[in-house]
Amino acid sequence: MTKFVYLFKESDQSMRNLLGGKGANLGEMTSLGLPIPQGFTVSTEACTKYYDDGQKINDTIKKQVFDALAKTEKVVGKTFGDNKNPFLVSVRSGARKSMPGMMDTILNLGLNDEAVVGLAKQTDNERFAYDSYRRFITMFSDVVMGISKSNFDKIFDAKKEEKGVELDTDLSADDLKDIVEKFKAEYKKHQGEEFPQDPKDQLIIAIEAVFRSWDNPRAQYYRRMNNIPYEWGTAVNVQSMVFGNMGDTSGTGVAFTRNPSTGENEFYGEYLFNAQGEDVVAGIRTPKPITDLADDNPEIYKQFQEISQKLEKHYKDMQDLEFTIEKGKLYILQTRNGKRTAQAALKIAIDMVDEGLITEKEAVLKVEPKQLDTLLHPQFDPEALEAAEVISTGLNASPGAATGKVVFSAKRASEMVKDGDTVILVRTETSPEDIEGMAVAQGVLTARGGMTSHAAVVARGMGTCCVAGAHEIKVNEDEAYFIVKGKRYNEGDFISLDGSTGKVYGEKVKTIKAKVSGDFAKLMKWADNFRAMDVRANADNQRDAKQAYDFGAEGIGLCRTEHMFFEGTRIKAVREMIVAKSVEEREKALAKLLPMQQQDFIELYEAMQGFPVTIRYLDPPLHEFLPSDEKDIRELAEDLNISYEELNSTINDLHETNPMLGHRGVRLSITYPEIAVMQTRAVIEAALEVNKKGLNVKPEIMIPLVGELKELKYVKAEVVKTADEIIKNSKVDLEYSVGTMIEIPRAALTAEEIAKEAEFFSFGTNDLTQMGFGFSRDDAGKFLSDYYDKNIFDEDPFAHIDQKGIGRLMKIAVEDGRKTRKDIKLGICGEHGGDPTSVEFCHNIGLSYVSCSPFRVPIARLAAAQANIKNPRK
Amino acid sequence: MTKFVYLFKESDQSMRNLLGGKGANLGEMTSLGLPIPQGFTVSTEACTKYYDDGQKINDTIKKQVFDALAKTEKVVGKTFGDNKNPFLVSVRSGARKSMPGMMDTILNLGLNDEAVVGLAKQTDNERFAYDSYRRFITMFSDVVMGISKSNFDKIFDAKKEEKGVELDTDLSADDLKDIVEKFKAEYKKHQGEEFPQDPKDQLIIAIEAVFRSWDNPRAQYYRRMNNIPYEWGTAVNVQSMVFGNMGDTSGTGVAFTRNPSTGENEFYGEYLFNAQGEDVVAGIRTPKPITDLADDNPEIYKQFQEISQKLEKHYKDMQDLEFTIEKGKLYILQTRNGKRTAQAALKIAIDMVDEGLITEKEAVLKVEPKQLDTLLHPQFDPEALEAAEVISTGLNASPGAATGKVVFSAKRASEMVKDGDTVILVRTETSPEDIEGMAVAQGVLTARGGMTSHAAVVARGMGTCCVAGAHEIKVNEDEAYFIVKGKRYNEGDFISLDGSTGKVYGEKVKTIKAKVSGDFAKLMKWADNFRAMDVRANADNQRDAKQAYDFGAEGIGLCRTEHMFFEGTRIKAVREMIVAKSVEEREKALAKLLPMQQQDFIELYEAMQGFPVTIRYLDPPLHEFLPSDEKDIRELAEDLNISYEELNSTINDLHETNPMLGHRGVRLSITYPEIAVMQTRAVIEAALEVNKKGLNVKPEIMIPLVGELKELKYVKAEVVKTADEIIKNSKVDLEYSVGTMIEIPRAALTAEEIAKEAEFFSFGTNDLTQMGFGFSRDDAGKFLSDYYDKNIFDEDPFAHIDQKGIGRLMKIAVEDGRKTRKDIKLGICGEHGGDPTSVEFCHNIGLSYVSCSPFRVPIARLAAAQANIKNPRK
User: Fold this and answer.
1) What confidence tens digit (pLDDT) does each residue in B171-203 have?
2) Span of A184-193, A536-545, B785-794 with lowest mean pLDDT
3) What number is the ipTM of this complex?
4) Distance between CA B440 and CA B433 in Å, rounded?
5) 3-state secondary structure (DSSP) of residue A233
6) Which residue of A has its CA nearest to B710?
7) What is residue B370's three-state secondary structure?
8) Interface test with A, best of B771, B785, B812 (most A CBs within 10 A)
9) pTM above 0.90, yes or no
10) What Cα–Cα distance (Å) separates residue B226 from each residue in B42, B377, B837?
11) How close does chain B come to A748, measured CA to CA in Å?
12) d(Cα B132, Cα B112) in Å, to the nearest integer?
């Protein structure tokens, strides 16, 4: 028979997956001999079982709960519902990973009309007993039964008014007795039955409520944000109550072994005498700093400090503790590794190495990679933010803080920035034509699109703050305004974006520049020593490439050449190429692009100082380069010296039902090999040029969207012919390689063949995810919210690699590719290359490098190091 | 060292892959002791090598060719280029599968200025010798060097004029000598060098030309149509020349052992005395029926007939022979299994069983499944067709012959048909709204779309003739005309479509009804005995279901319920459902659909007489049900009693960038589970209804587009809850099952999980192909022609399952699905289910059934039988 319930003394920290973090730590502390109110944990497996059984706790689990209860009663010498010495418990959730505030807690469980009398006797404090009872009824009604707390607050407030008192504590025991009766009546009114008097019933119902709360919207959201699978479930901890509100020798508090904000090695926290935990949170009384306890009760302070130190040493990490003092006796209610800011995380990790507490390797594991993000972007002043009005919330698409004047077109953005304004570009959605505007804007706000929409991807690449898919906002680009909740914002009005929370503020909010301390560089250096994978960046221009280099990128894993095609005069040549009626005309237009493209590559090579640069050939469907509204088409037609009708007909011919699945990538090079020839000239000639100056660039030419060996073979032949001729004529040697993206499912499935021609693979996990799942990132936003609500998806497959499906394709490609070409270079250049869990996956399947946007390079470096520490590569 | 060249006497029919059909058969006939002009075959591997080496024949192959040549010279006692007894050869292609007329042939090779003298001496016929030489120069120049034949014809005709003669044969030896000189000069003029005099050079150049012709456009096209891989390559047969033009005791001809048109067991063919093969083809002289040979030369006739009979018995198939009589001696130049009409194929197969020549099993293998197609559709009168003008050519999307008046909308089509017209619906592309028009039309012509475009799929399903993607045609639906090559066709003008060739004729063409003889039924019965897979049909209404039943379908593998949503009044309820603002409103609209949907299913169940019926739940994106132009939107808004703006905004909200990858399939049921609930009611209540009348229907409910277990789990829970409640209330028992399409790559990759919930899998290979390859069938048409031209694709992956990539996904799903659910039912319902090679693949990977359009059911039955005969299932 499965064991679903464990006494604390049967548990230890190795059982975290089964018992949750809180339960495992309570067990661990029990075995360390610390003063822990005893109890037991109902396992996460019981939670899973509860859901599998259609949200029911079966008899086996119930029996095990009651057995554990009986054993605990024996240990503490109290009895459930006893009218002399009643046993009371708290019931709390505790998942594998801490999810603070996301799920429900019930205190004082076990109270009923008998036990309250017992509690009064036992504590010799009738007022306390009935106060505890009314608190329990409120909490049970609210949390377990969903009867809003306000119903009870009204009764309570009426009593205070009746009695003419201000503070809760001014109510007498009799007042509270009366309130309890009224509360029970209120409960009956809502539930149609009496408040449950059997403590065992109370317990089972409460455990169910905790299980249920695993699936509440708060918890769902938190899980999604933190990449916690629904399947894990939560454990439930049932623990003897101790009371911090039994008078002035009692108290309760929270403490950190180090400062969670700065990382300073100082005891940090706060406490209140004569209070329960909820009072500290409610903020009615102002808690005192924990250091005051040294004066208030030196003995307890010393004991607590010793315990804290012991726990920090034991767990080798900064601890976040909750404690209660009941009549002068200290109890530890829970300990866990404390949440901390990025700065604190770095300082603590480095200090602990200096203190000899942990090794450098352990220090590298202590910092959450994605936390580093906050070190790289400016932030709002927290106080100013507090005061500002949130007008809408979208997706936190690219972190950072942005304040500026609203603007609706790239053109106006440039103009206003030239005039000295800071702007925020607001669009229904962005397209490549908006790039210049995005580059000059402080932030980008879109009404449509997901985490990997054009706006999100480009903004992250630029390190620009972006809130995407704020659906409530209705944008009218033509008339230059947007409306949200009935209010209109015109060009020039100020708004602010928080790219880390997705919040949009309807005003200017003050920002502060984040500090990057020296600890950061130190830890990154350690991390680099432990990495097995290289980290490269996705960069399409010199600015981004330099940024990436500064952040430690060891090459460019993806240069999207099409981004180079939009600037100023060259877009005209691109358009001439598209409307060309013959190969000759097309080559003429391409010849105009050649010197510009060549210069692009020279700049990239120089920025990367000889690190490898992977250049992806033209990828998007050609219609992306042409205008879509009549006025622009007429203008362009005039510009190109062709008739409106002719141009319009070309544009119509290029129209596709599903552009994602259309004429793009390698397919363009098959139809128009002359484009690949021009790009090859530029790549090779630029490399020869910079190598003359002493660099040793070995360009990597990457063909996108290959799904079949012969596609690559055909284009590679054109590339090699062109390149070899140039190299031969140059009379100096130049190494280059030709490889492909693996971004079409069929490419992964036929990788053994494709590796015959491909000298490297780079996983394009954006497209691989889209095609593997069969939904486009542009359209999935509309239905994915239903998927999260209904627990069909735990996480966004565009943010984290779906290891089961898409990851399987990647594994197939890695294994099969190596069958043909043992030492094939394997990388990833999709958005996932900067996501820590995806980086770990890439390490585990044996990739040579990851490539991500410049601002994610440090994150990827750390994640790669952690992956190799956890699972060292042979 | 690889052996690239084989003497005929070293070869036999088992070596077909290496030596091509012609070469293998020449070897086989040699070993049978038949009178074969000796020679040798250069293997298909040499062809592959030729291409791998950059279109060069390497020295190894050359050496082997010359060795074989020397041996052959010895056998025949002649010498290349000899001025007394010169050796002359023919050089012909010969692929693994016969590709008549697709590649090049060179006769009389070996002639030069010396050898022609030798030939004159040897034959004592100077005229003949120089005539042979001038023919050789023409053929070599044209076929090998690409110098147009017309250059030589001009010289020849000038000579005839100069001499004042009509017939070639009226020219004297001296005239021909003069012509030869002029021909050589003409050759030099074009090539800049002398006509090659070394026969060995001639031979190598000719072999290269044959290899090169493997990749000419004719051959490419033929391969694609006949599913022959480029990789196979062609062999080259070098064979001693024999001459049918050496006077009246010489002749040449072609014969079939049975009538290839009717299948009658009669000797069939024609011959000419004193002629070479090309003369028969050129049609200058009218050949005589082969039976006349019995009078002309009874001895030779008898010998030839005996050989023919021997070969038919030997190959157990009707033979197509070429022969030459040289000075009274019979030579067999080639034999092969003869091409035949579908009727003939059936008759021959059945007759041969009756004659005891082959078994029933062998007979089943003799008929090409796709040939049956022609037996099921009306055909044009061949003579009328010959005379008609082809105005454009599109894809042969759905076979059949159609003649009718041009019409541009479904509405007008219905009206005109009511008035007694026959019509052809012409659209840029079709959409579900056109279905009614397609149903009443004789044929459908579209300017856009591929073999699996909406028009093509629906037309094939209906058995309606369709030519799709005729790009030259510009359709203006609004003004009801189309223009092709400058000519305008208005509503009411006649055109004709040949759905088997893709040709469009600008006039009325007479049709004849094809005869389906009793042989057809007989062979199908035999086939059914050998099958391991069931064959079902894709049918969405009673008409199609009945048709399918008549064609032998054993169930419905796919009922696309959305097709039921377009008819008359129900489209209004569908639209009400889509614009509903709440679940209640939506349920109200669904309640209107319920009785209609229920009636649909009753009709289907009844048509299938208790065979299983698989019902796929609503699949397409909802915007497909809404109008797109302003006028229609205004009308609908009025109809639905909402404002134009509101409806327009709903339509805009439903807009998707890539609808193929959008909100459709199971995703609809997740957002709107009430749709699945309504469909479940209809499925189950209809089944209960018909079972009352004595049928035993077990509905199979199929959820489309699943990519993740939890999607299916969620929807299945709704389905099961609804179904079980209805069944419980009905108080009778009803079995039903719930399964899923496997059409998303991730579904295949996670099949082991999905099989936990899915009771059956049905492969939706259309979508699986689209997503696996990453191109949509609507858009791929634009670039796939480049893919064929450049030999990147040999065949259309929407017509034949891509076994390497998409097939691998299918195999993964089959194997992994069975791990979870050992006896999971596995089928296919994509378009591929009716394609013989795909059916064979499905058999080989172990599917339980294939499902295809009704008109392909007999084809699938035969293909399934052949697959099981070739690879019997345990």
Assistant:
1) 999 999 999 999 999 999 999 999 999 999 999
2) B785-794
3) 0.84
4) 13
5) coil
6) A792
7) helix
8) B771
9) no
10) 24, 20, 11
11) 9
12) 11
